[in-house]
Amino acid sequence: MTFTLTQLVDSISGALKESYPDISVYSNQNQQGTDVPCFFIFFMPTETENRVGRRFMRNIGIDVVYLVEKNDPDAHDQLVSVADQLDYALEFIPYEDGKLRTYDREWKIDDGELHYQITVKAIVSHPDNTPTIKEVESYEGGIKQDVN
Q1: Partner of 110 at 20 to 30 A CA spacing, among 55, 59, 135, 148?
Q2: Is the peptide bond before 45 cis (omega within 30 degrees of 0)?
Q3: Do the strands 92-95 and 55-67 form a parallel or antiparallel pair, or are they unpaired?
Q4: Is the confidence at residue 135, as pLDDT, over 60?
Q5: How far is 42 from 65, CA to CA, in rounded Å?
Q6: Of all residues in the chain, what percent carry a pLDDT higher than 90?
Q7: 98-110 and 55-67: which strand pairing?
Q8: Residues of the chain by 3-state class (helix, strand, coil), percent to 5
Q9: Alpha-helix residue ranges (DSSP H) falling in 51-146
Q10: CA 47 to CA 58: how far, in whole Å?
Q11: Distance CA 42, CA 21 (A)
């Protein structure tokens, strides 16, 4: 399986659509004429950690923003309700044939917007372009044998 950020956004969008089928989900902040309520998916700072061999861990920060009408008197209650539902909807994100666990889930309401932040930790590897050894007997591996 090839892990991509585009597929990750699609998977998060699918998880949101499963819980909220009538609410639009966007991954681009430059949407003109956006109807609220809606979700936006943004990437936050991401870190990588080296692992054994060609592997490394990608710690991918994601901010799921939920917007409602600013002048709605029930806006705060809607935001809290959605945050509560997202605790369950985004605990595991379906990804291809499996699921990705999310970490460091937290939410806050800032300027009338819900920011539900999660971290996805994915262990990935670089493709191995090392040529295969054709004959093991001829491979010395830098070891010199003492013939005495």
Answers
A1: 59
A2: no
A3: unpaired
A4: no
A5: 8
A6: 56
A7: unpaired
A8: 20, 40, 40
A9: 75-89
A10: 6
A11: 20
